[in-house]
Amino acid sequence: MTTIELPRSQDAMPEGLPTFADVEAAAARIAGQAVVTPLLESPELNQRLGGRILIKPENLQRCGSFKFRGAFNRLSLIPEAIRARGVVAYSSGNHAQGVAASAQIYGVPATIVMPSDAPRVKIENTKAYGAKVVLYDRFGEDRAAVADAILARSGATLVKPYDDLGVIAGQGTCGLEIVRQAEAMKAKLDAVLVCCGGGGLTAGIALAVDALSPATEVFTVEPEGFDDTLRSLETGERMTNRPDARSICDAIVTPSPGELTFALNRRLLKGGLAVSDEEVLRAVAFAFRKLKLVVEPGGAVCLAAVLSGKLPVAGRTIALTLSGGNVDAERMMEALALD
Amino acid sequence: MTTIELPRSQDAMPEGLPTFADVEAAAARIAGQAVVTPLLESPELNQRLGGRILIKPENLQRCGSFKFRGAFNRLSLIPEAIRARGVVAYSSGNHAQGVAASAQIYGVPATIVMPSDAPRVKIENTKAYGAKVVLYDRFGEDRAAVADAILARSGATLVKPYDDLGVIAGQGTCGLEIVRQAEAMKAKLDAVLVCCGGGGLTAGIALAVDALSPATEVFTVEPEGFDDTLRSLETGERMTNRPDARSICDAIVTPSPGELTFALNRRLLKGGLAVSDEEVLRAVAFAFRKLKLVVEPGGAVCLAAVLSGKLPVAGRTIALTLSGGNVDAERMMEALALD
Prior knowledge:
Radius of gyration of chain A: 18 Å
Number of strands of chain A: 10
Helix content of chain A: 40-55%
Structural class of chain A: alpha/beta
Oligomer: homodimer
Strand order of the largest sheet of chain A: 1-2-10-7-8-9
């Protein structure tokens, strides 16, 4: 709930982690396939909060979330003969669509393991990209085990949702754009807020910000009950969420930080915040009414953090991600009915 | 319904019309107040239509529609001592918000005459910008007469919604941005589609396109039953819509083209199209689901024209305006329930 103030660890970086050079290489690979989303500014939001808010709307990204960046970069890194055997992913839906669309572009088969309670729009879109969808019970089955069985049969390549060098580097291209677009707008970024599930987008953005704008602080925002990265930053160890935790932020309800993502995040982040489902729904409604953007709950946590006052922005310049927009109509109505 | 092919009139331009120089001057005046909206591209929309579609999302403009551009430019042109007496406007809601917000920026009073059946979101937002709202019956009262009575009492300045040099020039800044942003994206524009009510946005954009990209064709898109500009282009005279015509496109259900706007449009446009309310609702739903943008019916007519196939886009590069996003939740639900 509170912003923590972590000193940067002085430990050496482990082997096998992506670097900023990987982010730059990813940017070249995804150019022409991914959308260079704009960096938006709303005079009314600025006025309301008394600061300067720069919005990175990854809901406008191909497939409706940032996930296409990492998925396409990862598929590009698989040797062609191996890629031809296909790819497999497990995902609540946004990574699913990113992998399915990337596989379609490369003309290779994709099988996606998705929770049976994922938003319909995500399941339908994943199928529309030509992928085979295998549903599992989010609370009773282990998605990794379901995916493993498929991998063993097919010889396909697993595309992990976040704990992967190529995926993290791909998501980092979002941070590269934020820093460069902010410079073009003559904005000096005090902080960047990132919607955080497994930490892939966060780690990628943090790599880019650390390289290009080291004075800028990076914060995660998570749903209450799924603040594993926040608690892991506090303890210095990867913490796990309670199995009975629930949140409407389906895109980012991961059980614990990734190994690679946390190794980067614990060194590069300034802190983390958590927001309630009601704060998130109010942010979804605000985005609809005032920003005219369709944002899903998991994509609205950063906006919720600034609208709720949990991260003070008065007199500061803050960039924040709206990480996705794949929301069912029913959920949007729930948000718009709040007040 | 069909695209007409008009030769450009060789008549001399009447006196008192804005020129491209007025558009350039307006751009300098609104800089820092209006949002430079991005020019967006959706790989999925391109793939679906087989052409290249560049989307100008004026729903992301300050106050949720392009109207702020013209309103702020117009208010800037009023001498300070006269502006201090206040401004009056009649509007279905988007011009209302643009004038109200501009008056608030200048610290002068605004009175807005609005139809009693305008979307609630537009009435509420107009009040939120500090304006006094006077409601009238759209089908029983003359809004100009209502406004005149207020003007006579107050000494305020009337800010017309479209038939005004300063307003047209301000809306033209949208066209200036479209042409320059398309150039930056290395896109050679075959055509620009503009959502058309009274024709102010169309005339302004046409001025900019004519000056900067004369080979690019400009088309209006109107709701069926309110295709007065299309029919006026065909006959060469300003035609009026039937008083019993109805459309959900509240932002652009004007009775006939403006005098100034039509004088420009008949010389600068290539033709016009009309779309049905159902085609519009499907476009509103497409914008929500695929583009992740909140677009109001009147702002979705151009998208409806390309999605319905009324303007063929295969192999072509087309820019289109999404002119506003001030839609009530109920109308959005109606669109999302269509299929």
